[in-house]
Amino acid sequence: MAPQRQFLPLLLLLSLPAFFLYSHYHSSPHLSLSSHSLNPNPDLNLPSNLGPRLNSIPNLSNFSFILKVLTFDRLSSLSRCLRSLAAAHYGRDTVHLHIYVDHFRHADNVSELLDQKLDESRRILEFVDGFDWKYGQKVVHYRTGNVGLQAQWLEAWWPSSDHEFAFVVEDDLELSPLYYKFLKSLIQNYYYNSSNFSPSIYGASLQRPRFVPGKHGNKIHLDDGTQIFLYQLVGTWGQLLFPKPWKEFRLWYDIHKAKGIKPFLQGMVTTGWYKKLGERIWTPWFISFIHSRGYFNIYTNFLHERALSVSHRDAGVNYGKTAGPDSYLLDESSLDIELLEMQPLTKLKWYDFCFKEVVPGRVIKSFKELGSVLYSVQKQDTIIFVSLFGALERFIRNLLCHFESSNIQNYILIGPNSDFLLDLARRGHPVIDVDQFLSSIRAHKMKSLRDSDMEVKKDILVKAYVIQKSLESGFNSWVVDGNMLPLSSSPFLDTIDANYDFHAGKTPEILFVRSSSSSRKVWVDDFIHKVAGMVDSVMGRGKKFVYIVGELLKQEGMRIKWVDDEGSLSLRIDSRNANRTTMANGKKTVFWSPELGSDTIQKRLEEMDLWIIDSEDSCTAVVCHQS
Asked: Suppose 587 and one of 54, 387, 571, 617 were both cysteines; which one would form an S-S bond, judging by CB atoms 3.0 to 4.6 Å apart?
């Protein structure tokens, strides 16, 4: 049977003498459209037995669950909290109880208060000493000095294994008798079940979600059918911590604390808290860490303002006076749901600090898969395809921060298979795995090249195919390279002339293809076949995709509007030391040649206030846009 016409460009490339056989690509790990399996921190090994297909926790001798109760001077609150924990259903499981009693401040030791403080401490210690805990060990840690809430949290736990879990409870909480059954089921489903495991998840909060830390973020709105979802924010009113992310955080904290790096994150309400309260609170540190790693927390959504953990918001560090319960406790008497029925991870929704939905794991590996993603990301029937070929990782991350700041969401990243590409997908950016995408088009029969121009050829060919699919789906396409930055939320729209279906720029290399009957008529398999046929003829001449397309469209009698050639649209960054900020006024983009050198490029972008990532390549700000 003759090969389908769609495969002809690839078969033509195969016939070129520069092509050699290479080892089969499929020996590398794959990530499906809905998978979240990439380890975001390869320096920390994942638990070795996360893959058993069991309905219960494997090897119970390794599994360990520890309650970490943090208290200070609220005896009545502590009494209520411990009694609720003791009333929970643990079955035959061993659950250890560790109580951390902070000391009163020595600065408070004025004569009239000293005896009162000493008496409060004595009564708390007498109570915890006499409190009966029959489910496991009870350990009491009484501090010799006041350390505050931050140290109470951070010093309460260093996991002894990858199977030890901590549930941290502040003393003004009240827990449902059902809380442990729920958490154990959650651990079974989302930690030990390999099909549901994601290293992006750091734990689970039992409090009712009520707060969005991103300024101008969306209101929390969940449909009645959503019982479990993922949200980046840590919940301090009953937080289950997974061992590896917590260890990772503690090491991250040590580095930042030692180097004097503050947890400032622009656009976050919690940064204002830290500036006001300083080291009295710990959450801004953890939030900054979560932001840098792209991690998420499991939350529950029970109707009628119910939760498995209720904060009575007693007077203390967080409240000047008692505010009362924040929710209604979900217990057996009010249970009207299947509490332990947990959906597969692929069915759950994920939300960032702005409570904007995030879709992790969109790795496009085939022509067919591209179609569904196009519909989900398009805006005003337009898609922006960004090529990662030839661009350094930190410049791509800086570009994505600009996209976030400008609310540009209708993009798809194009790049070769790599840990970097998969990490971008894990964080919610749609990507095309060029190697598998091209392999799927040629029905897995293509062998690869080993010549130095192979990456360029892949880049050219995949751009031609994604435009074809975009046109078939009725969408306009912008194709740009990653060595540029937008200076506005619509950097190219002003250049569009309704009389032209094709707009192109050679420096920087950009291409716009309008979805029209004439563009769909010309951009067919034969056209892509001709693109592939011209690849070798332009290699080494500095001419790439736009040049090839321009020549072929001219042969087809199509008109092209050349939108920029280092003119009004874009500003080139060069090695000169002059301040370029004024020169960028009125420009739509800035761009650079990779040959300029990464340090020089970064320095120029910093001078123009366009470098908006930190030393960890994370955005320096969270920018929320109303959905």
From this structure: 571
